[in-house]
Amino acid sequence: VGCTGLTTVTLPEATDLGETCFYNCTGLTSVNLPSILKLYANIIDNCSKINTVTLGGPGKPISDTSNFSSGALYNNNTLNLIIYVSDPSNPPTLTGRPWGASSATIIYEQA
Asked: What is each CA distance from 75 to 9, 41, 42, 57, 99, in whole angstroms?
């Protein structure tokens, strides 16, 4: 919370992120969460420079988002939301997406 010098976060093994974990990290531009299974509310709220959030990764598709809070990615910035799925041409229905990101462009990538 409030880490103004933090610019990029990659948490390769994190499966669960707590509420407001990056709140007010005003220098943060990207978050990469390849193993994420659970997101609580407002993880990037008030991160004024955030522009990319990546969920899943190569070999780690996102298929179940029932444990993602409806406001997990709440932020007013224009956001590229990259989601790794098994089949980008036929992505699964992901409950609640974009999880509060009001100006998100969703990009599906091959896991």
From this structure: 17, 11, 8, 22, 10
Q: How far is CA 14 from CA 31, 59, 102, 103, 105, in A?
A: 12, 15, 25, 25, 24
Would the pTM of this model clear 0.85, i.e. be above it? Answer: yes
Nearest CA to 43 among 107, 105, 99, 102? 99
> Which has the closest alpha carbon to 57: 98, 14, 27?
14
* Average pLDDT per block of 10 residues along the chain, 111 residues long: 88 93 93 94 91 95 87 86 93 77 89 96
